């Protein structure tokens, strides 16, 4: 059973459990230097109908998140008051994009990290990056030989609707990730563990390209 499926008992009851999962994932990414300071954000789908996500709260150090440092948001990325009367917190400014990725791809979790490799290569390759003949491609569901896979790159925007439109237009269903030029990397998966694995694999591919001087 996936972590997402485990958390489909009710958003009001499961938000803190989701927060614990996201806090652990954020601490892992922060330890790699991928979520420095308060940068980056994570989300996890709690229900599909209606769509509800737990999203990391804005302005928190991602290496020090507590299970309570998450906000329940709807399909538009807006904070949802909890049934127990607690006021909603302030979600990441990019919660709307997380919700759109979840709707568009069916993902159960979305990761957004600010890595040096993604920012540097996004600027150098605005048309996307092509990978082939690499064992690590197996980590995103592709053979190590005989197939080219493109990691899309899109221009940044502070308007999440504009950024979402760009992601939707550029997305390759075979690659569970997209680079936002000058900004960072968005990656998704069926649950937080798969999203983590995809993130680590895609970042490895980017670091390889950067090490090769491309």
Could you characterize the architecture of this molecule?
By secondary structure, the protein is α+β, with helices and mostly antiparallel strands. Helix content is 36%, strand content 19%. The chain contains 6 helices and 9 strands, in the order ααβββαβαβββαββα. The strands form 2 sheets. A 7-stranded mixed β-sheet has the order 3-2-1-4-9-8-7, with helices on both faces. Strands 5-6 form a two-stranded antiparallel sheet. α3 packs parallel to α5.
Q: What share of residues is helical?
A: 25-40%
* Major sheet details: 7 strands, mixed
Output the structural class. Answer: alpha+beta
Instruction: Give me the Rg, rounded.
Output: 16 Å
What is the averaged pLDDT score? 90
Count of DSSP-assigned helices = 6
Beta content comes to 15-25%
Written as H for each helix and E for each strand, in order along the chain, the element string is: HHEEEHEHEEEHEEH
| Through-space gap between termini | 40 Å
**Which segments are poorly predicted (pLDDT under 50) over 5 or more consecutive residues?**
1-11
Shape: globular
Describe what is shown at a glance:
With 214 residues, the chain is α+β, with helices and mostly antiparallel strands. The protein is 36% helix and 19% strand.
Q: What's the helix and strand layout?
A:
Layout: H1 3-6, H2 11-31, E1 41-48, E2 51-56, E3 70-73, H3 95-105, E4 109-113, H4 116-124, E5 129-131, E6 149-151, E7 153-154, H5 160-170, E8 177-180, E9 184-189, H6 192-211
Parallel strand pairs: 7-8
Antiparallel strand pairs: 1-2, 1-4, 2-3, 4-9, 5-6, 8-9
Helix pairs in contact: 3-5, 4-6
